[in-house]
Write a structure and sequence with these properties.
Distance between the termini: 33 Å
Radius of gyration: 18 Å
Number of strands: 4
Helix content: 40-55%
Length: 225
C-alpha cells in the first residue's frame, strides 16, 4: 500500500477481534516505525509492549480506579478540558461515534460504558506504551519525536492489517502502568497505542473524523501563484 493511501484510509479502531497479535508482527512494525524523524538523532523513545495478564491487570486496575473517582495521574502535563474550537471538534467526533453505536444523548449507562471502554484500551489484545527519557524534560522536542514514532507505528500496523487507537485514557493512572510493566522512573510515560485486528462488525470502526479545509489552517508565503 502506498503512503498516500495509508494516510487517507487509516482510522482509529475502537473494536478489536480477540485474535492475538504475535510478538514477531509487533517487532516488524517497530522496526519500520523507528525510522521516524528524530531531533539530532537523539531517539529519546522507549516502547513497552503489553499483552496477556499484564495488560489485563493494567486495564482492570485503571478502570477500577477511575470508576471509583480517583483523579488521573499522568506523567505529562495535561491541557485540562478543551474549550472553543477544539472542544467543538471533540464534540463532533463524539456525536458521530455515538450515532454509529446507537447511543442516545440521554442514555447515561451506554455513554458511561463507552468511557469505560476507553479506560480498558478498547479491549485490544496488545498495548504499546510509549515513553521518553525523563532527563530531556522540560521541552517539547522529545514529545515531537515520540509523536513521529507513534504515527509510524500506527501506519506500519495498518499496512499489515492491524488497527490501532492512540489512547491516553488507557494510561490515566500512569503509576499503575509503571508498576505492572516495570517501567523505570527515569522514563516518562507519554501515551499508549492499543492495537489489534479490527472487528469490521463494530459500528464505530467505520467512523472517520472530519478534517478542516487546508484554507483554514495553511498559509502560503512567497509563492508566485
Amino acid at each position: 500500500m502506498d503512503f498516500e493511501t495509508l494516510v487517507q484510509t487509516r482510522k482509529s479502531v475502537r473494536g478489536f477481534k480477540k485474535q492475538p497479535v504475535s510478538r514477531a508482527t509487533v517487532e516488524e512494525i517497530i522496526e519500520v516505525a523507528k525510522r521516524a524523524p528524530s531531533s539530532m538523532n537523539t531517539q529519546p523513545w522507549h516502547v513497552h509492549v503489553l499483552t496477556g495478564e499484564p495488560l489485563e491487570q493494567v486495564r482492570r486496575r485503571n478502570m477500577d480506579e477511575m470508576i471509583a473517582g480517583a483523579k488521573a495521574k499522568r506523567d505529562i502535563v495535561s491541557h485540562g478540558e478543551y474549550q472553543g474550537v477544539h472542544r467543538g471538534r471533540q464534540v463532533d467526533i463524539a456525536k458521530k461515534l455515538f450515532g454509529a453505536m446507537g447511543i442516545a444523548r440521554d442514555d447515561k449507562p451506554m455513554r458511561q460504558d463507552w468511557v469505560l471502554r476507553g479506560f480498558r484500551q478498547f479491549d485490544a489484545p496488545v498495548s504499546l506504551v510509549l515513553t521518553y527519557d525523563r532527563i530531556l524534560d522540560p521541552g517539547a522536542v522529545c514529545h515531537f519525536d515520540l509523536g513521529a514514532l507513534c504515527y509510524g507505528i500506527v501506519l506500519a500496523a495498518w499496512d499489515r492489517g492491524l488497527g490501532s487507537v492512540i489512547n491516553g485514557q488507557g494510561i490515566m493512572r500512569s503509576d499503575i502502568v509503571r508498576e505492572v510493566a516495570a517501567i523505570p522512573e527515569d522514563q516518562v510515560i507519554m501515551t499508549c497505542v492499543a492495537m489489534g485486528y479490527p472487528d469490521d462488525s463494530f459500528a464505530a470502526n467505520a467512523v472517520r473524523s472530519d478534517r478542516e479545509a487546508n484554507s483554514d489552517f495553511v498559509r502560503y508565503v512567497g509563492f508566485a501563484d
